[in-house]
Amino acid sequence: MGNWSYMSLDALKANTADTSTRDDVAYRRVLEAVSEEIDNWCERTFRIRLATRYYTAEKSTELDLKADLLSITTLKTDIDGDGTYETTWTTADYRLEPRNAQDERRPYYEIEVKRQTGSQFFPLWEDGVQVVGKWGYWEELETPGVTLAEALDTSETGVDVSSGAALDVLDTLLVDSEQMYVTGISTNTLTVVRGVNGTTAAAHDNGATVYRYRYPSPVVEACGIQASRIFKRRSSPFGVVATADTGFYRIRTLDPDVQDMLAPYILMGVG
Predict the structure, then answer these.
(1) 3-state secondary structure of 109
(2) Which residue intervals of the chain are DSSP H helices?
(3) What DSSP character marks residue 241?
(4) What would the pLDDT profile of 149-172 be if each residue is shown by its tens digit?
(5) CA separation (Å) from 266 to 32, 91, 95, 208?
(6) What is the spatial distance between Cα 248 and Cα 119, in angstroms, rounded to a whole number?
(7) d(CA 2, CA 27)
Protein backbone atom coordinates (compact mmCIF):
# COMPACT_ATOMS: atom_id res chain seq x y z
CA MET A 1 0.00 0.00 0.00
CA GLY A 2 1.29 3.45 -0.88
CA ASN A 3 1.79 6.40 1.41
CA TRP A 4 -1.02 8.52 -0.03
CA SER A 5 -4.76 8.97 0.30
CA TYR A 6 -7.08 11.26 -1.63
CA MET A 7 -9.38 11.66 1.37
CA SER A 8 -8.26 12.34 4.91
CA LEU A 9 -9.18 9.99 7.73
CA ASP A 10 -11.03 12.82 9.46
CA ALA A 11 -13.15 13.55 6.38
CA LEU A 12 -14.13 9.90 5.96
CA LYS A 13 -15.11 9.61 9.60
CA ALA A 14 -17.14 12.80 9.34
CA ASN A 15 -19.03 11.26 6.41
CA THR A 16 -19.81 8.15 8.47
CA ALA A 17 -20.46 10.04 11.74
CA ASP A 18 -17.89 7.78 13.43
CA THR A 19 -16.40 9.53 16.45
CA SER A 20 -14.45 6.57 17.82
CA THR A 21 -10.85 5.65 17.03
CA ARG A 22 -11.49 1.91 17.10
CA ASP A 23 -11.37 1.43 13.32
CA ASP A 24 -8.79 4.07 12.42
CA VAL A 25 -6.16 1.56 11.28
CA ALA A 26 -8.68 -0.24 9.06
CA TYR A 27 -9.99 3.05 7.68
CA ARG A 28 -6.47 4.10 6.71
CA ARG A 29 -5.79 0.78 5.02
CA VAL A 30 -8.99 1.02 2.98
CA LEU A 31 -8.47 4.68 2.01
CA GLU A 32 -4.95 3.98 0.78
CA ALA A 33 -6.10 0.92 -1.17
CA VAL A 34 -8.95 2.85 -2.78
CA SER A 35 -6.63 5.73 -3.70
CA GLU A 36 -4.39 3.26 -5.50
CA GLU A 37 -7.43 1.69 -7.16
CA ILE A 38 -8.53 5.13 -8.40
CA ASP A 39 -5.11 5.66 -9.98
CA ASN A 40 -5.31 2.27 -11.66
CA TRP A 41 -8.85 2.91 -12.89
CA CYS A 42 -7.96 6.33 -14.33
CA GLU A 43 -4.51 5.19 -15.54
CA ARG A 44 -2.98 8.32 -13.99
CA THR A 45 -2.10 9.59 -10.54
CA PHE A 46 -3.41 12.70 -8.81
CA ARG A 47 -0.60 12.92 -6.28
CA ILE A 48 2.45 14.97 -7.16
CA ARG A 49 5.63 12.97 -7.71
CA LEU A 50 9.21 13.85 -8.48
CA ALA A 51 10.68 11.22 -10.77
CA THR A 52 13.13 10.44 -13.55
CA ARG A 53 11.64 8.73 -16.60
CA TYR A 54 13.27 7.30 -19.71
CA TYR A 55 11.70 7.32 -23.15
CA THR A 56 12.20 5.89 -26.59
CA ALA A 57 11.18 8.56 -29.10
CA GLU A 58 9.26 7.58 -32.22
CA LYS A 59 9.94 10.91 -33.93
CA SER A 60 12.98 13.17 -33.79
CA THR A 61 10.85 16.30 -33.32
CA GLU A 62 8.36 15.21 -30.65
CA LEU A 63 8.16 12.95 -27.64
CA ASP A 64 4.93 11.32 -26.43
CA LEU A 65 5.18 11.06 -22.64
CA LYS A 66 2.17 8.79 -22.05
CA ALA A 67 2.04 10.33 -18.58
CA ASP A 68 1.03 13.58 -16.89
CA LEU A 69 3.88 16.09 -16.67
CA LEU A 70 3.65 19.33 -14.70
CA SER A 71 7.16 20.71 -15.11
CA ILE A 72 10.63 19.69 -16.26
CA THR A 73 13.69 19.89 -14.04
CA THR A 74 16.12 18.59 -16.65
CA LEU A 75 15.74 17.13 -20.14
CA LYS A 76 18.70 15.17 -21.49
CA THR A 77 19.40 12.98 -24.48
CA ASP A 78 21.87 10.20 -25.21
CA ILE A 79 23.11 11.27 -28.64
CA ASP A 80 25.33 8.26 -29.34
CA GLY A 81 23.45 5.40 -27.68
CA ASP A 82 26.12 4.64 -25.07
CA GLY A 83 23.76 4.99 -22.07
CA THR A 84 25.18 8.37 -21.01
CA TYR A 85 22.89 11.37 -21.27
CA GLU A 86 25.49 13.91 -22.24
CA THR A 87 23.30 16.54 -23.89
CA THR A 88 21.25 18.82 -21.65
CA TRP A 89 18.46 20.75 -23.35
CA THR A 90 17.56 24.34 -22.53
CA THR A 91 14.09 25.86 -22.60
CA ALA A 92 15.00 27.34 -25.98
CA ASP A 93 15.18 23.79 -27.34
CA TYR A 94 11.71 22.52 -26.48
CA ARG A 95 8.14 23.40 -25.57
CA LEU A 96 5.50 21.46 -23.66
CA GLU A 97 2.15 20.54 -25.15
CA PRO A 98 -0.71 21.28 -25.02
CA ARG A 99 0.30 24.92 -24.88
CA ASN A 100 -2.70 26.02 -22.78
CA ALA A 101 -2.50 23.19 -20.24
CA GLN A 102 -1.62 25.43 -17.30
CA ASP A 103 -4.51 27.80 -17.98
CA GLU A 104 -6.88 24.83 -18.18
CA ARG A 105 -5.53 23.27 -14.97
CA ARG A 106 -4.34 20.10 -16.64
CA PRO A 107 -0.97 18.48 -17.34
CA TYR A 108 1.35 18.34 -20.31
CA TYR A 109 1.78 15.06 -22.17
CA GLU A 110 4.11 15.85 -25.04
CA ILE A 111 7.46 17.57 -25.63
CA GLU A 112 8.11 19.18 -29.00
CA VAL A 113 11.33 20.50 -30.47
CA LYS A 114 11.34 24.28 -30.96
CA ARG A 115 12.28 24.39 -34.60
CA GLN A 116 12.73 28.17 -34.63
CA THR A 117 15.21 28.40 -31.75
CA GLY A 118 16.16 24.84 -30.85
CA SER A 119 19.28 23.00 -31.91
CA GLN A 120 18.43 19.55 -30.51
CA PHE A 121 16.53 16.49 -31.69
CA PHE A 122 15.28 13.30 -30.06
CA PRO A 123 17.40 10.22 -30.84
CA LEU A 124 15.29 7.27 -31.95
CA TRP A 125 17.10 4.47 -30.17
CA GLU A 126 15.86 2.78 -27.03
CA ASP A 127 15.73 4.94 -23.89
CA GLY A 128 17.45 7.79 -25.69
CA VAL A 129 15.67 10.49 -23.66
CA GLN A 130 15.80 11.22 -19.93
CA VAL A 131 13.15 13.46 -18.36
CA VAL A 132 13.49 14.59 -14.74
CA GLY A 133 10.47 16.45 -13.54
CA LYS A 134 7.32 16.87 -11.52
CA TRP A 135 4.57 14.46 -12.52
CA GLY A 136 0.84 14.37 -11.74
CA TYR A 137 -2.53 15.59 -12.92
CA TRP A 138 -2.51 19.02 -11.30
CA GLU A 139 -0.73 20.63 -8.35
CA GLU A 140 -2.89 22.58 -5.93
CA LEU A 141 -1.63 23.66 -2.54
CA GLU A 142 -3.49 25.36 0.27
CA THR A 143 -2.10 27.25 3.24
CA PRO A 144 -3.86 26.04 6.41
CA GLY A 145 -2.07 28.67 8.50
CA VAL A 146 0.41 26.20 9.99
CA THR A 147 4.16 26.54 10.50
CA LEU A 148 6.81 24.28 11.97
CA ALA A 149 7.20 24.79 15.70
CA GLU A 150 10.72 23.33 15.71
CA ALA A 151 13.70 22.92 13.45
CA LEU A 152 13.77 19.51 11.78
CA ASP A 153 16.67 17.27 10.89
CA THR A 154 16.44 14.74 8.07
CA SER A 155 15.15 11.81 10.12
CA GLU A 156 12.67 13.08 12.74
CA THR A 157 9.16 11.70 12.27
CA GLY A 158 7.51 13.43 15.21
CA VAL A 159 6.96 16.94 13.86
CA ASP A 160 5.83 19.81 16.09
CA VAL A 161 3.65 22.39 14.36
CA SER A 162 1.88 25.58 15.40
CA SER A 163 -1.60 24.01 15.10
CA GLY A 164 -2.27 20.31 14.76
CA ALA A 165 -6.02 21.01 14.75
CA ALA A 166 -5.70 22.67 11.33
CA LEU A 167 -4.47 19.43 9.75
CA ASP A 168 -5.94 15.96 9.24
CA VAL A 169 -4.58 12.44 9.44
CA LEU A 170 -3.63 11.19 5.93
CA ASP A 171 -2.93 14.71 4.65
CA THR A 172 0.08 15.08 2.36
CA LEU A 173 2.07 18.17 3.32
CA LEU A 174 4.78 20.19 1.61
CA VAL A 175 7.53 21.87 3.65
CA ASP A 176 10.09 23.60 1.46
CA SER A 177 10.62 20.94 -1.23
CA GLU A 178 9.86 17.88 0.90
CA GLN A 179 6.53 16.07 1.01
CA MET A 180 5.40 14.45 4.26
CA TYR A 181 2.49 12.07 4.82
CA VAL A 182 0.61 12.48 8.10
CA THR A 183 -0.22 9.18 9.81
CA GLY A 184 -1.12 10.52 13.25
CA ILE A 185 -1.82 13.73 15.16
CA SER A 186 -1.46 14.24 18.92
CA THR A 187 -2.31 17.84 19.85
CA ASN A 188 0.37 19.78 17.95
CA THR A 189 2.69 16.88 17.14
CA LEU A 190 2.37 15.11 13.82
CA THR A 191 3.57 11.60 13.09
CA VAL A 192 4.72 11.63 9.48
CA VAL A 193 6.39 9.58 6.78
CA ARG A 194 9.25 11.73 5.49
CA GLY A 195 10.29 12.28 1.90
CA VAL A 196 7.30 10.72 0.13
CA ASN A 197 6.46 10.83 -3.60
CA GLY A 198 10.05 11.02 -4.76
CA THR A 199 11.03 13.97 -2.57
CA THR A 200 13.99 13.89 -0.22
CA ALA A 201 13.90 14.25 3.57
CA ALA A 202 15.69 17.49 4.38
CA ALA A 203 16.44 19.81 7.27
CA HIS A 204 13.88 22.58 7.82
CA ASP A 205 13.92 25.76 9.87
CA ASN A 206 11.64 26.52 12.78
CA GLY A 207 8.77 28.62 11.42
CA ALA A 208 8.80 27.14 7.91
CA THR A 209 5.40 27.28 6.21
CA VAL A 210 3.43 24.04 5.99
CA TYR A 211 1.35 23.60 2.83
CA ARG A 212 -1.29 20.92 2.23
CA TYR A 213 -2.03 19.22 -1.10
CA ARG A 214 -5.57 19.34 -2.44
CA TYR A 215 -6.96 16.96 -5.06
CA PRO A 216 -9.88 17.36 -7.51
CA SER A 217 -13.16 17.32 -5.57
CA PRO A 218 -14.71 14.47 -7.62
CA VAL A 219 -11.64 12.32 -6.91
CA VAL A 220 -11.86 13.04 -3.17
CA GLU A 221 -15.58 12.23 -3.03
CA ALA A 222 -15.11 9.11 -5.14
CA CYS A 223 -12.46 7.94 -2.71
CA GLY A 224 -14.82 8.46 0.23
CA ILE A 225 -17.77 6.68 -1.39
CA GLN A 226 -15.71 3.67 -2.43
CA ALA A 227 -13.90 3.44 0.92
CA SER A 228 -17.19 3.54 2.83
CA ARG A 229 -18.60 0.87 0.55
CA ILE A 230 -15.63 -1.46 1.02
CA PHE A 231 -15.60 -0.91 4.77
CA LYS A 232 -19.24 -2.01 4.94
CA ARG A 233 -18.22 -5.39 3.57
CA ARG A 234 -16.83 -6.33 6.98
CA SER A 235 -20.39 -6.83 8.20
CA SER A 236 -21.68 -8.34 4.95
CA PRO A 237 -21.18 -12.09 4.31
CA PHE A 238 -19.25 -12.65 1.08
CA GLY A 239 -19.69 -9.01 0.08
CA VAL A 240 -23.50 -9.23 0.01
CA VAL A 241 -25.48 -6.14 0.95
CA ALA A 242 -29.24 -6.03 1.44
CA THR A 243 -31.54 -3.00 1.40
CA ALA A 244 -35.31 -2.72 1.55
CA ASP A 245 -35.41 -0.93 -1.79
CA THR A 246 -32.97 -2.92 -3.88
CA GLY A 247 -32.85 -6.35 -2.26
CA PHE A 248 -29.56 -8.24 -2.42
CA TYR A 249 -26.57 -7.33 -4.51
CA ARG A 250 -22.85 -8.07 -4.45
CA ILE A 251 -20.00 -5.58 -4.13
CA ARG A 252 -17.44 -6.44 -6.79
CA THR A 253 -16.23 -3.31 -8.55
CA LEU A 254 -16.19 0.45 -8.34
CA ASP A 255 -19.48 1.96 -7.25
CA PRO A 256 -21.45 3.28 -10.28
CA ASP A 257 -21.45 6.80 -8.82
CA VAL A 258 -17.69 6.55 -8.35
CA GLN A 259 -17.28 5.50 -11.98
CA ASP A 260 -19.34 8.51 -13.10
CA MET A 261 -17.25 10.87 -10.96
CA LEU A 262 -13.98 9.50 -12.32
CA ALA A 263 -15.04 9.21 -15.97
CA PRO A 264 -13.75 12.70 -16.98
CA TYR A 265 -10.35 11.89 -15.46
CA ILE A 266 -9.66 8.59 -17.24
CA LEU A 267 -6.53 8.91 -19.37
CA MET A 268 -7.77 8.12 -22.88
CA GLY A 269 -6.63 9.20 -26.29
CA VAL A 270 -3.40 10.75 -25.02
CA GLY A 271 -0.37 9.88 -27.07
Answers:
(1) strand
(2) 9-16, 24-42, 217-232, 256-262
(3) E
(4) 999 999 999 999 999 999 999 999
(5) 19, 30, 25, 36
(6) 65
(7) 14
> What is the DSSP secondary-structure string of 142-173?
EEEEEEBSS-B-SS--EEEBS-GGGS-TT-EE
Instruction: State residue 240's pLDDT score.
Output: 42
d(CA 260, CA 203): 43
How many other CB atoms sit within 10 Å of the CB of residue 52? 12
Q: 11 near 224, Cβ under 8 Å? A: yes
Can you give the pTM of this predicted structure? 0.89
| 94-100 contact pairs (CB < 8 A, 24+) | 94/118, 94/120, 96/69, 96/72
CA distances from 105 to 4, 64, 172, 258 (A): 21, 20, 20, 22
Q: What tens digit of pLDDT does each residue of 189-220 get?
A: 999 999 999 999 999 999 999 999 999 999 99
DSSP 3-state percent helix, strand, coil across the chain (nearest 5): 25, 35, 45
Cα dihedral value 62, 64, 67, 70, nearest 10: 10
